[in-house]
Amino acid sequence: MAYTEEELKKELETKEYEYGFYTDIESDTFPIGLNEEIVIAISKKKEEPEWMTQWRLEAFRVWESMEEPNWANVHYDKPDFQNISYYSAPKSADPNKTLDDVDPDLLEMYRKLGISVDEQKKLQNVAVDIVVDSVSVATTFKKTLAEKGIIFMPISEAIKEHPELVKKYMGTVVPQKDNFYAALNSAVFTDGSFCYIPKGVRCPMELSTYFRINQAGTGQFERTLLIADEDSYVSYLEGCTAPSRDENQLHAAVVELIALDGAEIKYSTVQNWFPGNKEGKGGVYNFVTKRAICEKNAKVSWTQVETGSAVTWKYPSCILKGDNSIGEFYSIAVTNNYQQADTGTKMIHLGKNTKSTIISKGISAGKSQNSYRGLVQINSRADNARNFSQCDSLLMGNECGAHTFPYIEAKNKSAMIEHEATTSKIGEDQIFYCNQRGIDTEKAIALIVNGFSKEVLNKLPMEFAVEAQKLLEISLEGSVG
Amino acid sequence: MLKIKDLHASVDDKEILRGINLEVKAGEVHAIMGPNGSGKSTLASVIAGNERFEVTQGSIELSGEDLEEVSPEERAHKGVFLSFQYPVEIPGVSVTNFMKTAINESRKAKGLEDMPAKDMLKLIREKSELLEIDRKFLSRSLNEGFSGGEKKRNEIFQMAMLEPKVAILDETDSGLDIDALRIVASGVNKLKSKDNAVILITHYQRLLEYIVPDFVHVLHNGKIVKSGGKELALELEEKGYDWLKQETAV
């Protein structure tokens, strides 16, 4: 039978979040609340050097004087920052052990997540760093990478082992006081990944980090710092999941990418934090600051597939500082039920002959709101800068919204900026056409959505493109009206 | 094979089909003609199971099975094919990918494994040659930017791939130039067998010169007002529909 609006709604309701399980691992969790003592305690717990503690405290003091931004097209109850625990570590974590020593319960959790560490290690040629709650659990392939001089490790270790690199680059792209959430992250970040690719080295495998919030009432504040030295190349992927919980969980990450002269970074994200239930209860607040700086002839591509979180506030950006540098942003953002996403990018053209491309695909279903917000800024010295932006929205049903907020600031006459935007709706006639060929409605939606998102899916590394496609299907099951 | 009894159907409470009776046996070709608004396309949609239309009375049987509770995709799995008058565009989905999905969904419904890639390629090669389709065409997004002729040829290509029991061709001839018409018609003729049936919905006699029907029915005001052999089509061509309208009014 073809679907009526009612049937569709019902089916949508029965769709459950696939990753909604909680693994009972003994955790070492700090009391709730945030003050200087907590910041110092986190630093101490991580056995950090004094300069790091001071850096955190500076951030904390700035944060105290700041207010939460409210310009985004999202509405939610502001988190009570004194009601969150800022540190939660699986008790059995020990940074020095290898994968073989990892707690079998943890490994079971990865298995449920569909990321068999062993499998990925062997089959996919992917080096994985996994962060559960606040602590990085295992980094695979460390040795293989070390032979090339590549450093890939939890940031907490990097602070101790490579302080000169961390000190030199951390906060240079996203300063402590950049914004409310970045300041908060700078004060309390507990782990994350650090990566350095030496001059002229092409990283032979995909690097990958999986983030997961497990413990109730904790926030996850991870920090990623990736430095691609001159003429190097790296492709990096991060994936995120969280168990389903009634209360909102806070996730405020910072990602800084540094692409030195001639370097290329591909950074892909598959974000599937718990989106909340069908009534819009629970879900993750995803307030993330991601920014890259491109030196001469460097290139950074952000690719994101955003299907999770109750509220998303995220603008992976590129500062095209060097001449001839290139910034790209490819995004698929899916919202369903009561999800809200305000996401996009900023392309700041400072150097000459800089180029940027923005392809954004927003898919809204249920009662969700999906906004694209982007800024293309051409500085007065950026001669011959080029930008191409394309923002497409696909709507399902009559109760969701799609919004586009493109900002363009050009201060150089030679700039060439193009912007295209479309909005379409999955039509009954498209569904019937597919039905008539023997394709049921679920599959038809998946087919149409995948077709719509193809330009972006194609940008993902092969093995993750398949995963992302599946994720799109799951997120939108039964959501056409 | 297909048995339609006293079929009444309406859309938004407006009755369009008012008691259709039609029996189509395996190996037969039926043409349904009639003026605009007589209900030809509605009949095609209702047979295919489009739920925009409500069947208020009567029945459709396929090989003895009542289709009332059968969904459009299940009807397709059972061998009903509709060549659309206005095929829709699905951006980003290639003709090949679409066909692969359609075939494998049908196979899944029958408890079969996905068709091996090798066989799929062979089938595609075979059928695209039959319809003189350029292979490059198959990697294009479904119907996106296709000319009228390309869309119709693509519909018949899909028919060739899916090998239906009952194929309904809704105004497949409209928008085709004479060469394309010849190719499409010869494709349909090659696909025709003693085990399947074809229903041609058309305004004009032109298509029937290439695909010769066994029966011609004239639809008017949601009813079949006259049936006959292929000569009826010629008569219609000559006299138009007005004489029939008058005849039935009496």
TrEMBL record, chain A:
PANTHER family: FES CLUSTER ASSEMBLY PROTEIN SUF, UPF0051 PROTEIN ABCI8, CHLOROPLASTIC-RELATED. It holds the Pfam family SUFBD_core. GO terms for biological process: iron-sulfur cluster assembly. Residues 211-452 form the SUF system FeS cluster assembly SufBD core domain. This is Iron-regulated ABC transporter membrane component SufB. InterPro entries: Fe-S_cluster_assembly_SufBD, SUF_FeS_clus_asmbl_SufB, SUF_FeS_clus_asmbl_SufBD_core, SUF_FeS_clus_asmbl_SufBD_sf, SufBD_N. Residues 122-203 form the SUF system FeS cluster assembly SufBD N-terminal domain. Belongs to the iron-sulfur cluster assembly SufBD family.
UniProtKB/TrEMBL annotation, chain B:
SUPFAM superfamilies: P-loop containing nucleoside triphosphate hydrolases. Coiled coil: none annotated. Belongs to the ABC transporter superfamily. Ycf16 family. It holds the Pfam family ABC_tran. CDD domains: ABC_FeS_Assembly. InterPro entries: AAA+_ATPase (IPR003593), ABC_transporter-like_ATP-bd (IPR003439), FeS-cluster_ATPase_SufC (IPR010230), P-loop_NTPase (IPR027417). Keywords: ATP-binding, Nucleotide-binding. This is Fe-S cluster assembly ATP-binding protein. Residues 2-246 form the ABC transporter domain. One of its GO terms (molecular function) is ATP binding. It comes from Maribacter spongiicola. The keyword Nucleotide-binding applies. The keyword Protein biosynthesis does not apply. Gene3D superfamilies: P-loop containing nucleotide triphosphate hydrolases. It comes from the Bacteria.
